[in-house]
Amino acid sequence: MASLSSRPRKRRGSGVSQWELAWRRLKMNKAALAGLVIVGVIGVMALLDRLIALYPPNCNVGTNPNCPNPGPKPDVWAIGIPPSWSFPFGTNLAGQDVYSQIVYGARAAFLVGIGATAIALAIATLIGLVAGYFGGWVDNVLMRLTEVVLVLPFFLILLVFLRILFTLSPGASGGLLVIILVIGAFSWPGPARIIRGEVLRVREFEYIVASRQIGASGFRILFRHLFPNTLHIIIVLSTLQIAGSILTEAAVSFLGFGDPNSITWGRQLADASEAVKQAWWAGLAPGIFITLLVMGFNLLGNGLRDALDPRLRE
Amino acid sequence: MLGGRRYGPAPSDSRWFWVRNSEPGVLCLVSLVKYVVRRSLYLIPVFLGITLLVFSIERLAGDPVQIATFGNTHITEEQRQKIRQYYGLDKPVYLQYLHWLSELLVLNLGDSFSGGSVSNLVGQGILATLELQLLGLFLSLVIAIPIGIYSAKRRYSVLDVTLSSSALVGTSIPISFMGIAFILIFGYYLNLFPSGGAQSTIQSQYLYGNVFLDQLWHLTLPTLVYTFAILAPIVLLVRSSMLEVLRQDYILAARASGLGDRAILYKHALRNALIPIVTYVGLYFGGLLAGAPVTETVFNWPGVGALFVVKTNVLDFPVIQGVVVLITLMTLVANLVTDLTYAYIDPRIRID
């Protein structure tokens, strides 16, 4: 959001920009601000991970010199300890500090959410703009393609891709990247249709007709006029897509198809669920954090929609 | 094609047979049949494209037998070759595709790598899946629509804020988390419901000694979780679409003409507000067969979703292909039906 609010200051001349107006509306919206705070706090957590975590990643407390055991019995593995002062969210059955693992998982959540969304929205924007602006057979071909991808059961195909990948290379270090790529590659059709719809609406406006009259190229109209005027929809769709991608990763990991080599909240939830009767706290924390972050992005997305939608403007 | 054509006077042409001539849903039998036929014809290339895509997924990664048995040291190359021959995987790829496609037309999905025909495997899961899905959908619609209407009617009231914020939390909770929590609380600590499966394994464990009651007992928790999971987005959808409709001019006109709130809300606003719900339910039906992989896995429910997860884990490609293709086919049909329902509900949409 900082980039949005700092933009108007660089402007020449006086008056209030549309972004400034949107930011003012967003500031009035308590729910959206709450979402912004949640996303911000977890974002800081993801950035600082090693500084605020109590233990190194995947450290079985008490088993090696890097993982000192703060408890009274230093020789005993810290397995399944309920929440306490030394372990704010307890430890799981592998003897890891749940709080530290949550902190490391935040980065993966942001990576998956933002990475997958960047890919999906980039494809969606390109297809939506081109199909909506050029119309005719271009539109026809692109929209048929969109329909085909939309009809495919994306979640099931994601599972198949991941299983093939991890069967062929069990130690795949780029597992998270594959999750990001596949989610991104399959979740563009919905946004693409919405963006196309908006382009169809915007391209009938007088200023587009006018710029065509004075001889602007199609490329220029697309990227100088249509793109900025669909940006508000792209921003809203992005926030909601981030939330959806994080949930998808959680589901994939839960079913055991996640990346075995990275720390994600989804996998923590899945691991904890196998021994939920012995250590429920190990599953509670990742569950709550996934819910919080997804809710934060959802709240922010809804707030942005209200703030940016020109049809609701006074 | 469906278009945004305005609702106008009925054409007086004698070729038109009115199926239903009352107010909004003006459908004409001849044009309806024409429309369905045209749309179905147009579905064929889309469907072919999808089969090609699904078929190539496994081939893109290489030889399916090689992948499915990857790292298995007990299998010799000779045995792999035999497996290939048995499943026809030694033939050229385009012949495999054509064979698979032609068998698909008679709903023969081939044999699973672990034995047994895919159609049978899927058939066994379908009932369990439909049971869970339809019950969940029904319950969530029955609960969500009144809540959504109420929230829109009393916007920003305490109850509206409570309901819509809990709906927002509901859309953000991972379904696996909710499932585990339910199992832990109701199954383990309170010991009210079984924590998984569709029915007790031995007869003496049946609830009151009755199979039906026992199945219902097992159905409760998965249905609850599943209902909550799909309930929340419907509440938000009904609320926002109702608010959108209530802003329209024709509602103002109705109010100006002295209609009561109740009549405006239920007779005039609701019908139009339901259009997005129809889309939602239509999309939902499309994915119905996919089951709810996560819910079914959490509760060990013997449906298609759980089957798919299990079979994908061992890369049983015939099952994977079969399930994916069945789902896409169903989605295509569901989309067609959804479009037809639009024309029925929305007076502004006409079929030409």
Briefly note the structural class of the backbone of chain A.
mainly alpha
DSSP summary, beta strand count of chain B: 4
Order of helices and strands of chain A: HHHHHHHHHHHHH
Measured between the Cα atoms of the first and last residue of chain B, the distance is 6 Å
Head-to-tail CA distance between termini of chain A: 22 Å
Content of β-strand of chain B: under 5%
Salient structural properties:
heterodimer, A: 314 residues, mainly alpha, elongated, B: mainly alpha, two-stranded antiparallel sheet, 4 strands, 68% helix, 3% strand
Outline of the structure:
The complex is a heterodimer of chains A (314) and B (352). Chain A is mostly helical and 314 residues long. Chain A has helices at 2-6, 18-28, 30-47, 49-52, 98-134, 136-151, 154-168, 175-186, 189-202, 206-213, 218-254, 265-274, 281-308.
Please provide a written account of the structure.
The complex is a heterodimer of chains A (314) and B (352). Chain A has 314 residues and is mostly helical. Chain A contains 13 helices and no strands. In chain A, helix 2 (18-28) crosses helix 13 and helix 5 packs across helix 9. The longest helix of chain A has 37 residues, at 98-134. In chain A, 46% of the residues are buried. The mean pLDDT of chain A is 83. Chain B is an all-alpha fold. Chain B contains 14 helices and 4 strands. In chain B, helix 7 (175-189) crosses helix 8 (211-246). Classes of the chains: A mainly alpha (314), B mainly alpha (352). At the A-B interface, helix 6, helix 7, helix 11, helix 12 and helix 13 of A face helix 1, helix 6, helix 7, helix 12 and helix 13 of B.
Ordered list of secondary-structure elements with their pairings:
The complex is a heterodimer of chains A (314) and B (352).
Chain A: H1 2-6, H2 18-28, H3 30-47, H4 49-52, H5 98-134, H6 136-151, H7 154-168, H8 175-186, H9 189-202, H10 206-213, H11 218-254, H12 265-274, H13 281-308
Chain B: E1 2-3, E2 18-20, E3 27-28, H1 29-60, H2 64-68, H3 77-86, H4 93-105, H5 118-153, H6 158-172, H7 175-189, H8 211-246, H9 249-256, H10 261-273, H11 275-286, H12 293-298, H13 304-313, H14 317-345, E4 350-351
Antiparallel strand pairs in B: 1-4, 2-3
